[in-house]
Design a protein that fits this description.
- This protein has 240 residues and is an alpha/beta fold.
- The chain has one domain: Spore Coat Polysaccharide Biosynthesis Protein SpsA, Chain A.
- Helices cover 36% and strands 22% of the residues.
- The longest helix has 29 residues.
- 36% of the residues are buried.
Length: 240
């Protein structure tokens, strides 16, 4: 049975972490652990997380200063025991109790290194989305060059991070976008038309601007497209 590690970066998340953890402990698929990577919170985050150990024993907590959310995610990768990784925001929640079962009780994960679905956005209406709207369907490389897949919608095979590297901390807001672009052209990605998480707006990647990431994306756009097309051609001739 596939083992999953759920990695949750936290910082002063006392008001939202309970909602997040409640969506995990009710999962019908229970072969997972929870890695809380906390940035030395000064509120009751750690106490609240610790209280959940009476409901779900396999929770590990690391609490120390970090260099931001992507540093926390990298620390989570380092300590994760799962064959697959899932990154969940401390103010977000898994969409329903059967999400993990729908992914890991089927052979689909054996065919891919990157499985993704949709998120349902909850929050103030924005120029790019309205509250209650589903984001954002099937991606190809051209679509991914214009917008990101929410990391709350993605399950990653852990060995991808060993092969292709972890999150680049020089991108403080959009390192997950750079990561997805890096992996999309190097591994088989499978889309499931399923809501994976409720994504609450107002977080770093939904409101921030990462000038360096956008500049570097423009520089590397052509290279990414070429890599993606080469992988498609290689796959075609391998099975032709």
């Amino acid at each position: 049975m596939t083992f999953l590690s759920v990695i949750i970066p936290t910082y002063n998340s006392e008001k939202t972490i309970e909602r997040c953890l409640n969506s995990l402990i009710v999962q019908t698929y229970q072969n997972f652990d929870i890695c809380i990577i906390d940035g030395a919170s000064s509120d009751g985050t750690i106490a609240k997380v610790s209280s959940f150990r009476s409901y779900f024993k396999d929770i590990r907590i690391v609490s120390e200063q970090d260099k931001g959310v992507y540093d926390a995610m990298n620390k989570g990768i380092d300590i994760a025991r799962g064959d697959w990784l899932y990154f969940l925001g401390s103010d977000d929640e898994v969409f329903d109790k059967d999400v993990f079962a729908d992914i890991f009780n089927t052979p689909i994960q054996k065919k891919s290194g990157f499985i993704y679905g949709n998120v349902v956005y909850i929050g103030d209406d924005a120029s790019w989305i309205k509250s209650g709207q589903v984001y954002d369907g099937l991606f190809d490389i051209r679509k991914l060059l214009t917008k990101n897949i929410c990391h709350q919608a993605i399950f990653y095979r852990k060995d991808l991070f060993k092969r292709f590297g972890k999150y680049k901390l020089q991108y403080p807001v959009l390192a997950d976008w750079e990561m997805n672009l890096r992996l999309f052209s190097k591994t088989k990605c499978i889309y499931l038309d399923k809501n994976i998480a409720k994504y609450y707006g107002g977080g770093l990647s939904s409101t921030g601007i990462d000038t360096m990431m956008l500049r570097d994306l423009e520089k590397s756009r052509k290279k990414i497209l070429i890599e993606y097309k080469l992988r498609q051609l290689t796959s075609f001739f391998r099975f032709a």
